[in-house]
Amino acid sequence: MTVTLDEFTVPAERAATAPPEARGSARDGVRLLVSDRGVLTHARFRELPRFLRPGDLVVVNNSATLAAAVDARYLGHPAVLHFATRLDDGGWVVELRSPDGVPFTAANPEPAARVELPGATAVLRGPWLPPARRLWIADIDAAVPQLLARHGRPITYSYVTQRWSPDYYRTVFGREPGSAEMPSAGRPFTDRLVTDLVTTGVTLAPITLHTGVSSPEAGEPPSPERYAVPENTARLVNSTRATGGRVIAVGTTVTRALESAADPSGRLHPASGWTEVVLGAARPARVVDGLITGWHEPGASHLELLQAVAGTETVRTAYRTALDSGYLWHEFGDTALLFTPSG
């Protein structure tokens, strides 16, 4: 199959509609396609230690997933409000969605409009990233953590046909609540796999990046996201690179956080705040030597990030192979480990 990275089609049957545990597998039993210096290998995720070396550093995202979807009503229409990002002034970035997981089209969001929630109200201020009008800033007249704890559930989209408990949206690394959607590249890791990595000489280190919501409008850039790279992780990244080890990012979230904290020479510094870094042809990766990732939709900005790390030809070949070989897409789907061409 010929793949143009902004035009390929993912057949509907390639959407993973349920967690692998519900499909008779295990978290670490999902498929793993490894691309290393032009060689493609099909494996299972539990085999990850085979493809890493003693001295490599795996950087993980310790952000935990919020129950960020709440049933709502807008102008009398049933809706779901997705809580995407907490802002520094106490407001929230939100997105109105239809109850069946598709974009909300019953009425247009407008400034000062009210979204009714269980025991609370969200008042829309205005679009967060104009001219796009998908995401809005809202003021909530209740404590949002308590609202989500009582009435929230994990965000899902139309390809997930059943509701699954929050346990299915947790990763073994999640410690810091704040992500609207699961940092899904970390989902296949298990305690046993982490132990296997450590005992083979691979080091793990955390960053925090709280994800926003996906499904952007066409042409909409990645949203700003809150992140933190701690001092110890920066030190480990620098020492790994200095001694010839490889830095492997678990997901586009980790890649974005690390690259946001890197200076032009590729040296990492402790950093925190909001990142607006967009990786691509104009801003290639400086720190990351490989990344573990799920499979993304055509035209997604994540694809540009993958190319910034692994190169366009590596990504194109991997996607062509995944489509030809039955790999599954989305947060409950299969995975890839893509190294830089010189990795």
From TrEMBL:
Bias kind Low complexity: ranges: 11-23
Stretches for region Disordered: 1-23
Gene Ontology process terms (BP): tRNA queuosine(34) biosynthetic process
InterPro entries: QueA, QueA_dom1, QueA_dom2, QueA_sf
Keyword Repeat on entry: no
Gene Ontology molecular function terms on file: S-adenosylmethionine:tRNA ribosyltransferase-isomerase activity
Keyword Zinc: no
Keyword tags: Cytoplasm, Isomerase, Queuosine biosynthesis, S-adenosyl-L-methionine, Transferase
Designated name of the protein: S-adenosylmethionine:tRNA ribosyltransferase-isomerase
Organism of provenance: Nocardia mexicana
Taxonomy of the source species: Bacteria, Bacillati, Actinomycetota, Actinomycetes, Mycobacteriales
